[in-house]
Amino acid sequence: MPIRNLDKIFSAKSVAILGASQRKLSVGNTVIKNLLGGGYSGQIYPINPRFDQIEGVACHASVADLPSPADLAVICTAAGSVPDVVGRCGEAGIRGLVILSAGFREVGSRGIELEQEILRVKKRYEGMRIIGPNCLGIMSPHSGLNASFASDSPLKGRVAFISQSGALCTAVLDWALEEQIGFSHFVSVGNMLDVGIADLIDYFSMDRWTDSIILYVESITNARQFMSASRAFTRSKPIIAYKAGRFAESALAASSHTGAMMGVDSVYEAAFSRAGIVRVQEMDSLFDCAGLLARQKQPKGPRLAIVTNAGGPGVMATDALLQRQGTLATLSELTMQELNQSLPAAWSHGNPVDILGDAPPQRFGDAVQQVLADKNVDGVLVVLSPQAMTDPTESAKQVIQVAKRSHKPVLTAWMGGARVRAGIDCLNLAGVPSYATPEKAVSAFMYLVQYARNREYLYETPRSIPIRFDIDRDRVQSDFVNLQSEGQQSDGKRTLSEVASKSLLEAYQIPTTKTFVAGSKEDAVDLAEQVGYPVVMKIHSPEITHKSDVGGVMLNLANREEVIEAFGTITTRAKRKCPEARINGVTIQKMYAKPYGRELIVGAKRDPVFGSVLMVGAGGTMAELLQDNAFELPPLSETLARRMLQSLRAWPMLQEFRGKPPVDLDRLVNMLMRISYLVANHPEIAEIDINPLFVTPDDAIALDARIFLDTTPAVTPATAYSHLAIRPYPSEFMKDITLEDGTRMRLRPIKPEDEPLWCNLVASCSPETIQMRFRYMFKATTHEMATRFCFTDYDREIAIVAEIEKEGEPTFVGVGRLIADVDHREAEYAVLVSDLWQGQGLGAILTDYCLDLCDRWNIHQVIAEMSPMNKRMIDIFVHRGFQLDRSVASDVVIAKKKLI
Asked: What is the phi-psi region of residue 403: left when phi exceeds 0, alpha when psi lies from -120 to 50, beta otherwise?
């Protein structure tokens, strides 16, 4: 259903209440009172055949008796009656439903059956949307709509609140009223039978009243849709999330180092970061953070300057900043000179800038202005302590004047009670955030930094690292099928041997040490002499995953005698510690010892919510103890892979460190990206554990590896890449063509690495071409502009570039873009062709190929908007059966074509 159909709920012009009641404090009575008390101006229709009126509003026997179909029905009846009630609403033409009734999946199997019955009924009525069941309801204060059984109505504001806990909603609402915090929408989602969190994020992205979203999340049900909606919203507006159950145990037992270190919370952390969501750890930070991120300028970095009239609070702010990994800004020489001229001689002569306890209001304003002008400063915190000579209100006014002129964020902490109250009110009224303590202000500033960093990371142009796979995909897939019968089977998971696991890694050109199986000590000696001493010997058993734990690894075996002795020692230890395990002998591999090497662990695991998740961390036998790791959702770009490494505490050791040269980071990044491809291409992989991955200044090689395959019948996805939360690069849309003049051209989807090529394409176009494509003029492309066109969500948008080779370098000569709505029912199309290539049929080629993609996407209608002067494109659309509409405006032609 198109997401805009949620208007029937949130912008309802009429509301029917099924289960309306005269009984005080009942749900059906409370909903009517809330609608009346909230100032709702639409029609209210209580539905109950036993009453003539409820709360002074005329009552109707059924929805069939209404003078016209209501937009919204609020259902308060018993759970068992709800499917029938939903059917009656559908017959009456009602398409928006909020089901408050409880007694569904939360009570067991009977409740699950009722939900399935509701879904079957819903399918009969196109356009019907349902929030709930088992929810508190919804509130839209700007229209006075309170379709809930909450005890109060929220104030008007610009923050949308979405919660999976109805009980929390009532507590938050009570607190928000006390703190005078308002909302654009307030939604309790309940069991999310139909409308989920992602639907609401998409809907609120188009809502004029919503500047930011707050999420209270207990679990995510449709990760792919959630990630797509969140990434779209956070392009321009912030989402703040509180995740409950941070320390819940993983639902699946960990059978590898990777699994042991990848908990539920770490996966949510990675997902939120990838979606651009700011996560808070305390409930009382939610609303401060939401308002702050929506209203304040984004800092360029974490360098904070502190201006205060008291030394102690300045120290408190500094401690809080450093504790949260912020940076105390180093003031420039110019700023120091200016402060020396304007401040008393006894000022602190550094940051924090202590302007002394006798500071008049003007001194506050001057100091803040001078510090803000410093290029080394990303933001300013002003801390006021009410001393005998302090004027908190006038000081606030001085700070407000400076803050309004600044492009950097200014935060304040007016400490105290009644004396500072008027000053705080002035700050709040002017939109300058004020906090009760320096610590809270610093915490808020770091949330600003986190949001800015998230956006920077999401839209940082990756370097183009060419990764080519000379592999026979059919053969690799055949190997996967053959391996289903190899290894140890347990609970739908098959553990592959080290030899088999390494063979799959090698198919993706991931270097490994060659491993050979020896069933006897004689075989072990023969193999050791073949590979060359020294060698490594490991126990070979399908039941033993962690070989070191059972003493099953021996290194640096230098001769025949040591190999024979090691064989007996290893097998004896394994039998003693794991008497139930099958011992199939040992493996032999060359001892890999290069100077300046470091050990990492790299892995992947399929999370039950977000699908495959990648991990990298400090490796070796101490991996689980150190717990120094980073997580990311595939697919990986060069930027994301490098960010994972940079986030490790071990990152400095990968650089030049105590005389050791740095490791080959490009090779390491390349390997992480290859593992990402491996996981993306093979949904059969439940876990990968590479430990250790040995990295040196000129190499990266997997010394040990174990892969676990999912053997359950449902492992094969219904759609491509459905085991991933983010759609990877659609390489299946690449097509090589040859033009009539012999020019070879590749049509392919654009990717973030293409930003320089896209900018060059735009630069090759005349002002007239740019005007016709973008409908406005600009002097040059910017990174911010390029991210909009090169960083695409392949689930919703695709740009097909026409690429040729010019003087040995790839060159874009045209691009066609499709932007689909959330439900893939309608897509907007636009095309840009370089001036040198216009008139050669390239616009038609791109249009035909994009229309072909619309068929694959199951798009119902394509729409394009162009200038009446663009004769070539108008002809292309006419020849392809588009209908033209010139009635919208004199300078616009709309072309539409129905495909289904």
From this structure: alpha
What distances in angstroms separate CA 328 from CA 73, 209, 301, one per listed residue? Answer: 55, 36, 11
Q: How far is CA 157 from CA 291, 444, 629, in A?
A: 10, 20, 40
The CATH classification of domain 514-589, taken from the options 2.60.120.920, 1.10.1740.10, 3.30.1490.20, 3.40.1160.10:
3.30.1490.20
Question: What's the gap between Cα 345 and its chain centre?
Answer: 50
List the beta strands (DSSP E) in 460-568.
488-490, 493-495, 515-518, 535-539, 553-557
Which CATH number is 3-210 given?
3.40.50.720
Condensed to tens digits (0 to 9), the pLDDT of residues 739-771 reads 988 899 999 999 999 999 999 999 999 988 888
Six-digit token pair at 380?
């300013």
**How many CB atoms are located within 10 Å of the residue 68 CB?**
11
Which stretch of DSSP H or E encloses residue 91? helix 82-91
Query: 863 to each of 487, 732, 733, 847, 895, how far by Cα in Å?
Result: 54, 24, 21, 12, 6
In CATH terms, the fold of domain 469-506+592-725 is D-amino Acid Aminotransferase; Chain A, domain 1 (3.30.470)
pTM for this prediction:
0.86
Nearest Cα to 75, choosing from 128, 2, 120?
A: 128
Question: How does residue 542 score in pLDDT terms, banded at 50, 70 and 90?
Answer: confident
- Which residues contact residue 349 at a Cβ distance below 8 angstroms, ignoring those fewer than 6 apart? 336, 340
Looking up tokens 């105390």, which residue turns up? 328
Residue 580 token pair: 């139930």
- Residues in contact with 468: Cβ distance below 8 Å, sequence separation at least 6, in sequence order: none
Chain-centre distance of CA 149, in angstroms?
32
Angle between helices 418-429 and 392-405 (to 10 degrees): 20
Residue 302 — very low, low, confident or very high, per pLDDT cuts 50/70/90?
A: very high
Angstrom distance (rounded) from CA 533 to CA 512: 18
The 10 Å Cβ neighbour count of residue 450 is 20
Q: Which two tokens stand for residue 124?
A: 């009969």
Contact 31, 135 (CB under 8 A): no
- The 3-state DSSP class for residue 262 equals coil
Neighbours of 364 (CB within 10 A): 27
